[in-house]
Design goal:
single chain; alpha/beta; Glutaredoxin; 5-stranded mixed sheet; 68 helices; extended
């Protein structure tokens, strides 16, 4: 029974498995049957998804990876998912560039990195973050940002890149220096450390600097030894051969290569890369050890610049072996490559003009390239179709030469078909192919030769034979084609099967072997079967992956999604598609759609989105009119390529676009009714707005129409529909200008007006005609030509124009005079007659004169009575209305001349020393820097002329200059520029110079209010050298949007408050208080952090001036990197050129001021601090001990004394003595100092003049630290450790009061002790005080305040009441006069000690042992 049950279970299990297998088999069969038009699940590649991480994972990733992009999102964020969907499209691309892309949902962590709003993107470069501020929906923009050199830029470091990013940088950057190195190699590490020093200088010279640790990439460029520097100049490599440890020499070389062009030396690998990637390349093979070769090379250097202008890259290579590969046995030799096809120069290389002409000729004309056997062999190997014309030795004028000239005429057609055409005189290869008689033509099809047997002198027959499909076809093989040939095949054939694959792919080769079996069957049904493996063919034809198989019917593609190894299923699929008739709107890919737009005359495209809900319903409705559109010759397709739709301006789905000869028209109606859509499409197809006229009508129109444009065309010309369509597009707009466009097919009339072979365009203006000689297919160009004011000018009279024509003329004319009139105006005819007399004079002066009959338009310009004359200046928003006598034409003309050139308002032009002296001597001067040939400069200058007089009224001198030397000295390199100088201190205007009112307000503000000057890099470098104390506020790069006017610093202040502030002295404190309070208010309107800080710093600018600290601001991110500034804004404090970075809170201006004036920060190493009068007063009030050296800048002796005094500056600091210098005669007089130089010691502001020798610094320091000078009567002196040690050494009796600052007990006790200071002096006890608790502990003092009495450095601590000065004085008196008792005691001790020593010596002598008897001599014994 058990056996039966077991067997039954096994039987049921087997049947169950069979049932499952059968079910799966049926499903697979169903899927295969339905798979012709749908992608199988297996065929669909997994979508790229950005990896989710948490905080710990992100931290680990940042520590391991150099480049990480982090997408911050939140659950509640509505747009995050949309943005994420877009960014996931570039995930694979970022991976290929070596950038890890992750996403994270962590609001706390986001705040730490400055993320407040979601979604956001942060890019980490070696842990350094930068926030992307562009459009996150633009995934291509994000990708460009992540892979751009600017985003990778790190302060004070050469950026590390990978191979793909390097290639992108080389392509996009004009000049980039690349360090190929090995990070584990010691030499590379040393070189890298040196080169980091010149990274900033390279940036300043617009040379990007990157490094790459990739041996394979180095070898690809032919670099065998690391480290190595290569400069890429617009993709052309220059190898540095100098010492990499000498960074200055390398920098000089880089700058020289950038400024001066020379033919670069390259390696074999570099040459191969350039041949592969450069369209036009000339290569000189030479021997650098051959003097003749070097002479030729020097000659060719002369044509390098001309070749660059022609777009031809020229390089040189010293490699005879490489030359032999091209069949070059003699050096030097020149080969020209055009799209990788080489051609050898046979002329004289010493004649550089001949070489230049030959290279330019090769580029501009289609010529059959002459090659060697070696080059020909390479071409046959690398290209599918090569035609070789073997001539043998061929002289000019021979039959072979004449045949070659005839064949030149078909070279272009062969290029378009993807067939390479070359010629050779070498005979070795000819013999290999058994060519016994020459000349001969051989066609190599995938290395298989086919000899031409027809007439070589008939070039048309040769072309026909070469491009014939039977010639191209190789029996038994699927033909290999290139992209050009494939495009031609698809255009010429109704049915084509194409196999796309990657060369060298083993899987693809196996598939090809299978597909060869069905090639003949396809040919029997007239289906072309080809294969293509060009580079990037998948991107070119928008394929998801390779290999791929596609069936084309009339350029419309269907991609096969089954198993490519099953040729029978593929053949069945091809036959089904061939036999089927599409009754649906066919879906097309990007490549196919672009081809259809270019090639199909009438095309309707339905753009939709897979996420669109109503799209399927609309698409089903449109399917009903597909057959109707076919019947009318309109191709109807659909596309879900959202990216392509965006590129042509479609952002809402669904959308319908009708293309006629490639010209798009957007449908803006509803698409739910198919018939309505069909009617619209047919209306567009049939719409012909341009009137067709006969000869009689043309004659009538020429006399009756002011402006008439006639298109002459040939009805049989296939280009006619396209040309007429372009004209249709501009017909409506031309009519707005009063231009009537007509068309005409009368050949005789066309010939009469200069067109023997139409098409052509003739323009009649009041009967006078001109012919159009531009591109008639460019409708925008035609419209510009028709509406050009120069072409619309008909007679010598003032032209009548309408509003549209006026706007056109206004844009084109610098100076325009308009007379507004009306037919109903009685005065107008007479005025017009008067004005006609001055029309020619106005034209000669460059003033265009027109008349307009438009009352409404006149009112818009402020004209309320006709007639009226209005004058328009360049860039002027408001015109000037003439207010004189309209009947006096001379007066009108003079007024026009004055408006054009108002001589009294010209800004004075200065240069050289005159300008420099004026800047240095003037209190307020504005200088406008401009250059010739700058259109913007001229427009701005005309605007600034309007405020010249206003500047004079406010005491501001306004001048202009084209002196580049002066501009360079102030760091002005971009023109135009405006710099305001106040007491020779520059400040750069950063607003819009076209707004003259804004400029004027800014200038007035600079003069009337204290502002922190904006300076350039060069200005900063000069100020750092010349200014002892300089505080520099570094601003971030210019904001893209929402920037306030440059003169306005009220970003954080309500207007009502600001308007109440006047410039009066008595309201200045109120002004500062209001501004400070407004900064702290929470309602900071339109205010960002940088402006807040700047407002605060301007509050302390005056106080900084008191301390001799000059404060400026600068906007230079590259310079900021030099001082390790990573985030903006930032403050750097220069003390005699030594920078110190502020690391506190910039929003607290008081803490900034305290930091700037802090002695530790202001202290200058080995140099006495320079002060001004105000600063000296402030320091004397704050410092109890100060030494001031009064001197004169013109005094030679002073310099010698200063050198001596600077020897003791540091030592004086140790004694708590501040040491400063001042070069001011007025300050010396104030302190009753007659002679200069002088040294004055201020103790509590009481001066003491040093009368010793100032040249002996040791005597000076001895005097400064002597007790006589140090003491201040009736006051206990403050000392530091150094001073106290000196006093203890020099004085027998010292009393020190140790106390604590800001302690009530200490202050009370000190007040009491001050009363006995004079009594202690009488006791010969020096009394000092010291606020140093640590030093007090050294002498056993644990509690403050305390009093310690020192007798010969021996301390005694007072234990009594410090508030009782009498007890303290009594205790000091007792200690002072205990000296005799102490002496007796000491003498007693000395006596006892001496007695002990004498007694000890006595005992040693008494108890000395008896010496042993002398030893007996052996002879005596």
């Amino acid at each position: 029974m058990t056996f039966f049950h077991t067997k039954l279970k096994k039987t049921l299990l087997v049947y169950t498995l069979i049932g499952i297998l059968l079910f799966n088999f049926v499903n697979c069969a169903n899927n295969n049957n339905n798979g012709n038009n749908k992608k199988s699940a297996a065929a669909v590649e997994p979508e790229a998804v950005i990896e989710e991480v948490n905080a710990k994972q992100l931290e680990k990733l940042l520590s391991e990876k150099d480049y990480v992009a982090v997408f911050w999102y939140a659950r509640s964020c509505v747009t995050c998912n949309k943005v994420l969907a877009e960014l996931e499209k570039i995930d694979d691309d970022t991976d290929s560039f070596g950038v890890d892309f992750v996403k994270i949902n962590d609001k706390r962590l986001a705040k730490q990195y400055g993320i407040k709003n979601f979604p956001a993107l942060t890019y980490f470069r070696e842990k350094e973050p930068i926030i992307y501020d562009g459009d996150l929906m633009d995934e291509e923009g994000v990708l460009d940002f992540l892979t751009s050199l600017e985003a990778m830029d790190l302060p004070d470091r050469i950026e590390e890149v990978n191979a793909k990013i390097l290639l992108k940088i080389i392509e996009e950057t004009d000049f980039v220096a690349v360090l190929f190195y090995d990070k584990d190699q010691k030499k590379s590490q040393k070189v890298l450390a040196e080169l980091e020093n010149i990274d900033d200088e390279c940036d300043q010279n617009d040379i990007a600097f990157v490094k790459i640790d990739d041996d394979a990439e180095a070898k690809e460029w032919g670099i065998d030894e690391l480290p190595c520097i290569v400069l890429y100049e617009r993709g052309i490599p220059h190898v540095y051969e100098g010492d990499l440890m000498k960074e200055d020499e390398l920098l000089g070389w880089l700058v020289y290569q950038k400024r001066f062009s020379e033919i670069p030396e390259v390696t074999d690998e570099m040459k191969d890369k350039l041949v592969e990637n450069t369209e036009h390349l000339a290569v000189i093979f030479y021997d650098k050890d051959d003097k003749q070769d070097m002479r030729i090379l020097n000659e060719l250097e002369n044509i390098d610049d001309e070749l660059e202008k022609e777009g031809i890259v020229i390089i040189r290579i010293d490699n005879a072996e490489e030359a032999k590969e091209y069949g070059l046995d003699h050096l030097p030799s020149l080969i020209y490559f055009e799209n990788k096809i080489p051609s050898i120069y046979e002329g004289d290389l010493m004649n550089e003009d001949e070489v230049l002409d030959w290279l330019v000729l090769q580029k501009k004309t289609a010529t059959i390239e002459e090659v060697t056997d070696e080059i020909l062999t390479g071409l046959i190997k690398d290209h599918e179709y090569v035609v070789a014309f073997f001539t043998g030795p061929c002289e000019e004028g021979e039959r072979c030469d004449n045949t070659l000239d005839a064949l030149e005429t078909i070279d272009d057609e062969l290029d378009e078909s993807g067939i390479i055409f070359v010629t050779t005189e070498d005979t070795v290869l000819a013999k290999k192919y058994n060519l016994k008689t020459l000349p001969q033509l051989v066609f190599f099809r995938n290395r298989d030769p086919l000899i031409y047997t027809g007439d070589l002198d008939d070039e048309d027959e040769v072309l026909s034979w070469l491009t014939d499909e039977k010639t191209l076809e190789i029996p038994g093989k699927i033909e290999e084609v290139n992209v050009k040939m494939l495009d031609k095949l698809l255009a010429d054939n109704e049915h084509t099967v194409v196999f796309f694959y990657k060369e060298g792919d083993k899987k693809a080769q196996k598939i090809l072997n299978e597909l060869e079996n069905i090639d003949d069957e396809c040919e029997e049904r007239d289906i072309n079967f080809v294969k293509v493996s060009d580079e990037n063919i998948d991107k070119e034809y928008d394929l998801a992956s390779l290999p791929a198989l596609a069936f084309y019917r009339n350029k419309l593609r269907t991609v096969y999604v089954g198993d490519l190894m099953r040729e029978e299923e593929i053949l069945e699929w091809v036959n089904e598609l061939y036999d089927s008739h599409a009754d649906v709107i066919e879906s097309v890919d990007r490549k196919t759609l672009q081809v259809l737009i270019n090639d199909v005359e009438h095309l309707a495209v339905f753009f939709y989105d897979d996420k669109c809900k109503e799209c399927p319903e609309i698409l089903a409705e449109l399917e009903n009119i597909d057959d109707d559109t076919d019947r009318y010759g309109i191709t109807f397709v659909k596309s879900n390529d959202v990216k392509l739709a965006h590129e042509i301006g479609i952002f809402a789905f669904p959308s319908l676009v009708y293309y006629e000869t490639g010209v798009p028209i957007m449908y803006d109606g509803g698409m739910t009714e198919g018939q309505v859509v069909l009617d619209w499409i047919l209306e567009q197809k049939m719409d012909e707005t341009i009137e067709f006229i006969e000869r009689d009508k043309l004659v009538e129109y020429i006399t009756s129409k002011d402006f008439l444009a006639v298109i002459f065309y040939k009805e049989e010309d296939p280009d006619t529909p396209r040309i007429l369509r372009h004209m249709e597009l501009i017909d409506d707009e031309a009519s707005e200008y009063g231009i009537h466009i007509v068309k005409m097919s009368d050949r005789l009339m066309a010939k009469k007006y200069g067109y023997r072979e139409p098409p052509g365009l003739t323009y009649f203006r009041k009967g006078k005609y001109i012919n159009y000689d531009g591109d008639i297919d460019d409708d925008e160009e035609v419209l510009d030509w028709l509406t050009s004011p120069a072409n619309m000018e008909m007679t010598d009279h003032i032209e009548q124009v309408n509003r549209k024509m006026f706007l056109k003329i206004r844009k084109a004319s610098d100076y325009l005079a308009v007379i507004f009139y009306s037919d109903e105006c009685k005065q107008c005819p007479r005025v017009l007659q008067e004005v006609e007399h001055i029309d020619d004079d106005a034209d000669k002066a460059g003033i265009d004169f027109v008349k307009i009959d438009d009352w409404d338009m006149a009112k818009e310009f402020g004209v309320f009575a006709l007639p009226a004359i209005v004058f328009f200046k360049p860039t002027s928003k408001e015109p000037v209305i003439y207010a004189g006598d309209l009947y006096e034409e001379e007066q009108i003309l003079n007024w026009l001349m004055t408006q054009k050139d108002p001589g009294g308002e010209v800004i004075e032009d200065l240069e050289g020393d005159r300008l420099v002296n004026l800047i240095e001597e003037s209190g307020s001067i504005a200088v406008y820097f401009y250059t010739d040939g700058c259109e913007q400069c001229t427009k701005v200058l005309e605007e600034l002329e309007n405020i010249d007089d206003d500047c004079d009224k406010h005491g501001i001198i306004f001048v202009k200059t084209k002196d580049f030397t002066v501009a360079d000295s102030y760091g002005v390199h971009d023109y135009p520029a405006l710099v305001y100088f106040e007491d020779a201190i520059p400040n750069v205007f950063e607003g819009d110079m076209n707004e003259e009112e804004e400029v004027l307000q800014w200038l007035i503000t600079q003069k009337t209010e204290d502002r922190i000057e904006l300076i350039t890099r060069q200005m900063l470098e000069t100020m750092v050298e010349e200014t002892q104390y300089l505080a520099v506020y570094f601003l971030p790069p210019t904001r893209k949007g929402g920037e306030q006017p440059a003169y306005c610093r009220r970003l954080c202040i309500p207007n009502s408050l600001y308007q109440n502030i006047t410039n009066a002295k008595n309201t200045k404190k109120k002004h500062y208080t209001t501004r400070r309070n407004s900064i702290k208010k929470p309602d900071k309107i339109n205010c960002n952090i940088c402006d807040q800080i700047l407002e605060g710093l301007e509050l302390i600018d005056d106080e900084c001036d008191v301390y001799g600290i000059h404060m400026v601001k600068i906007q230079d991110p590259q310079l900021a990197k030099r001082y390790s500034i990573k985030t903006f804004p930032a403050m750097v404090y220069f003390r005699n050129g030594n920078p110190l970075l502020f690391e506190g809170d910039l929003q607290n201006e008081q803490s900034v001021l305290e930091w700037l004036i802090d002695d530790d920060n202001r202290e200058l190493a080995d140099e006495i601090e320079e002060v001004n009068e105000r600063m000296l007063e402030r320091l004397l009030a704050e410092s109890s001990l100060m030494v001031v050296f009064f001197y004169d800048e013109d005094c030679q002796e002073c310099e010698e004394i200063l050198e001596e005094l600077e020897e003791i500056d540091g030592e004086a600091d140790l004694f708590g003595i501040d040491f400063v210098k001042i070069a001011s005669v007025e300050a010396a007089k104030k302190y009753e100092i007659v002679n200069i130089p002088s040294l004055v010691y201020f103790r509590k502001q009481v001066p003491v003049l040093y009368d010793g020798d100032l040249h002996q610094h040791e005597k000076v320091i001895t005097w400064l630290t002597s007790q006589d000078v140090f003491e201040i009567k009736n006051e206990i002196e403050e000392v530091n450790r150094k001073m106290l040690d000196k006093l203890l050494e020099e004085n027998e009796f010292i009393t020190v009061f140790f106390y604590e600052l800001k302690q009530h007990e200490s202050a009370t006790a000190l007040e009491k002790l001050e009363n006995i200071d004079s009594e202690t002096d009488n006791l010969d006890i020096t009394f000092v005080k010291m606020a140093d608790s640590r030093y007090a502990k050294k002498w056993g003092v644990t509690k403050l305040p305390a009093l310690v009495y020192f007798r010969r450095r021996f301390p005694s601590i007072y234990r009594g009441d410090l508030l009782s000065e009498d007890e303290v004085l009594e205790w000091l008196r007792k200690n002072r006069f205990r000296q005799p008792e102490l002496n007796i005691f000491m003498y007693a001790l000395i006596a006892l000690a001496a007695g002990f020593l004498i007694y000890t010596a006595f005992l040693l002598q008494c108890f000395k042992p008896t010496p042993p008897p002398p030893a007996q001599h052996p002879k005596q014994s």
